[in-house]
Design a protein that fits this description.
Layout: H1 2-9, H2 28-51, H3 66-81, E1 85-87, E2 91-100, E3 109-118, E4 123-125, E5 140-149, E6 157-168
Antiparallel strand pairs: 1-4, 2-3, 3-5, 5-6
Length: 173
């Protein structure tokens, strides 16, 4: 009976605290900063590839998800094989967060955003050095896109999907 009395008085070890994944973003300002930086890096890498004539398109992989990488490779290679090169660089004018999540959704998305870029300083040249840009090309293009968490040789955040949302003479996002 003495042994039973001793075990009854011994306190049970406390249960470990529930494991909880820390939020990706604490607030909308953090989400906007991360999304803006991610899109700027995407623009920088893709522009570099295009200016260099479409060489080493896999450099884009660090800033895009696996599914988008395949599409981007095709687009970058298409311009290069057509003998086209890029001169100048687009400018990010504005970015707006449509939605952001503290943890990734079922598709891995942590933010949905739109960015407007100014294309007025960008020219696309053919193999002979002639511009292939239409005179009536809109000055701005707005892209809608999803951002997810990177990792495994990728940036902290990556583009998962992006589509042209609007084109015009000014940004309206």
């Amino acid at each position: 009976m003495g042994l039973l009395a001793l075990t009854a008085c011994t306190a049970a070890e406390p249960a470990p605290p529930p494991s909880r994944t820390p939020p990706v973003f604490e607030n909308e300002e953090q989400a906007l900063a991360a999304v803006t930086e991610t899109y700027q890096e995407f623009m920088r890498i893709s522009n570099t590839i295009l200016v260099e004539g479409g060489v080493d398109v896999d450099r884009i992989d660090v800033i895009v998800g696996d599914e988008l990488a395949e599409f981007e490779h095709g687009s970058l290679i298409e311009l290069a094989t057509a003998g086209k090169t890029l001169v100048g660089a687009p400018t990010l004018v504005s970015t707006r967060i449509a939605e952001w999540y503290s943890t990734p959704d079922s598709l891995g998305v942590i933010a949905k955003a739109k960015s407007c870029i100014d294309l007025s300083s960008v020219d696309v040249l053919d193999a002979a050095g002639n511009s292939t840009v239409r005179p009536d090309r809109p000055r701005t293009r707005t892209w809608a896109y999803d951002v997810g968490v990177g990792g495994n040789g990728k940036s902290d955040f990556v583009l998962l999907d992006h589509d042209v949302d609007a084109e015009g003479e000014s940004c309206e996002i």
